[in-house]
Structure formats: C-alpha cells, structure tokens
Design a protein that fits this description.
The chain has 214 residues and is of the alpha/beta class. The chain is built from 7 helices and 6 strands. A 6-stranded mixed beta sheet has the order 3-2-4-1-5-6. The chain is globular.
C-alpha cells in the first residue's frame, strides 16, 4: 500500500524591528527590519539555504519580505506574496507601546490581556477572526502544495494560532510556548494529521526577542 505523501512546512517569524525592541504594537503597519533583524535574516538564510524547498511564501509586509530575501537570493527562487499571512490588525493599539496602551485604553487593554476571543480593538480584528484567517491561509497553502516542502515567512500572531491549532490549545489560554524573531518552526502533515517536529529553533542566531504578549 502506498502511503500518502508528507507535506512539510518551515514557518519563520520575521526578524527583529525597532518596534519589537521598543515593545511597540506593529500589527499591520509596515515596519522594516532593524540592523539586528537584517543580521538575523542573513543567519537564517545560512540554514535554510542548505535545504530544498519547492515553494516560498511570505506576508506582503516588508519585515517578512526582508527576512525572506537572503534565502531567495541563496536559492535563486521567487516568492509568492500572500496578504492573508499578515499580522493581526490591532486597531487603536497600533503604533503605541503596550505600556502606553495600558495607560491610554485600560479597559481595552484588560480585554486584550484576557485574550477575549471576540474583542477587536474597536477598529481592528478579533482573536477569533484572526485565528480563522491564519489557519485558513496555512491550510490552503498546504493543500495547494500537498507532498511538497514549503517555506513560509510570516508573523508572531500567525504562529501563535498555528501552534494552538495543531496542539488543540484554546485561544483564551495563556501562551506557553516561544515565538522568537527569526525562529524556525517545522511542521509535517501526514495521514496522522498535523504534527510539530520542532519549534522556535534559534541555534542559528546570537539571540532573539520574544516580545509578544502571552
């Protein structure tokens, strides 16, 4: 009996930005990598450039595209930009530090900190809707490239929901796993379902922030 093909994903969080270092909410604002982030992108390419990928996807935001670029140069491959791989839309929080948000919008911050699934930052995206978007786009990419090896550059929030989807952890529970900048996260899809093979690989880095709230 022939076994169904294994689909492999390596999903990478973008490198560090100045706003990551400041604990400032980026959301869907287009913030570029800082010098540390550019170095992290080059370091990741030294690992990923030794591997074989059939296709490479990225969020269309510059911090993800810049993280992908050294790998594209190394492998001489093109990239597919996908808007649905963007970070969560944080509405009224965007451009503020978390400390500023807590002071300026205390009730909103409390709902956010409690991971209330329906809370949408007044002008942003709810946790529930963002989770559905994140999982839907990753599932579509995997389905479109079944049996292939796929490289994806995205954001911390997307990775948060991907980990929860695979492990069955509810949206409202505190995060108990790391999502470092430029970390590598490896997933396989087999007849047994979705499985995490490794998570948050940072051996290629000198250090990496995990600035995301729990």
């Amino acid at each position: 009996m022939t076994l169904p093909p294994v689909t492999r994903l390596c999903v990478v969080r973008h490198g560090e930005t100045a706003w990551n270092a400041e604990h400032r909410v980026q959301g869907q604002l287009d913030v570029p990598l800082n010098a540390v982030g550019l170095a992290q992108a080059r370091a990741a390419s030294k690992v990923l450039g030794r591997e074989k990928f059939d296709v490479i996807y990225s969020s269309d935001l510059s911090r993800a595209r810049q993280t992908a670029q050294p790998v594209l140069d190394f492998l001489s491959m093109k990239i597919i930009l996908e808007k649905e791989l963007r970070e969560r839309h944080y509405g009224i929080f965007e451009s503020l530090t978390y400390a500023e948000v807590k002071e300026k919008f205390p009730e909103d911050y409390a709902r956010f900190e409690a991971r209330e699934p329906g809370y949408a930052f007044r002008t942003g995206e709810s946790l529930k809707d963002f989770s559905a978007r994140s999982i839907s786009v990753i599932e579509k990419i995997a389905e479109d490239h079944k049996g292939q090896s796929i490289l994806v550059f995205t954001h911390g929030g997307v990775l948060d929901h991907l980990h929860r989807f695979i492990t069955g952890q509810p949206l409202s529970t505190e995060r108990g796993f790391g999502i470092p900048n430029a970390g590598l996260n490896r997933i396989e899809i087999t007849s047994a379902g979705w499985q995490i093979r490794s998570w948050g690989e940072v051996a290629h880095l000198k250090g990496a922030l995990d600035d995301l709230p729990g």
